[in-house]
Amino acid sequence: MRKLNAVLIMIILVLFLIHGVMGAFQLTGVGSTALKIIARIAVALTLAHVVIGIKLTADTIRIQRKAGAYYYKENKLFWARRISGLAVMVLLFFHFTSFGTYRGEAYRLREFDTGRLISQILLVVAIAFHVITNVRPMMLALGIKSLKKWVLDIVLILSIVLLFMAFAFIIYYLRWSAV
Known about the structure:
With 179 residues, the protein is mainly alpha-helical. Helix content is 79%, strand content 4%. It has helices at residues 2-27, 36-67, 76-98, 114-141, 147-178; strands at residues 100-103, 106-109. It has a two-stranded antiparallel ribbon with strand order 1-2. Strand 1 (100-103) and strand 2 form a beta hairpin. Helix 1 packs antiparallel against helix 2, helix 1 packs parallel to helix 5 (147-178) and helix 3 packs across helix 4. The longest helix is centred in the N-terminal third of the chain and has 32 residues, at 36-67. The protein is elongated, with a radius of gyration of 18 Å. The relative contact order is 0.13.
């Protein structure tokens, strides 16, 4: 199940990067589409990832309870990963509702106010934390043993793309403020 989850994560990550870059171009006024189908596939795969994560977490808790040893100090990173995943899910809800809604056949933009900007920046930060803290276990689940070479590349690329997304949200906010 961990290997399936790792493969799901890789696909989600690729779809996220495509959606994020295309969306950032759209928010800055350079592009015209965020590829909604990619976003919907990513959401479906993310839900599968959440279900697997909940099952693996429940299994871990069950084993700890059975052994009678919880090792809270040693498992801080484990819990940070779970809590950051929960934060991503909560902030994704705000992402889904931040930009607009359909009214009949027409798509209507919502005002992108300070609260929406903050929620989107927090989403970027939560995703960055969640992905960075989970790169090592994902690589191990995929059987990649030489982590140092890959981890730094992944973190660098992800950091650049996430920074671009954050700037796009800020530019979009400034464009709304000028209106």
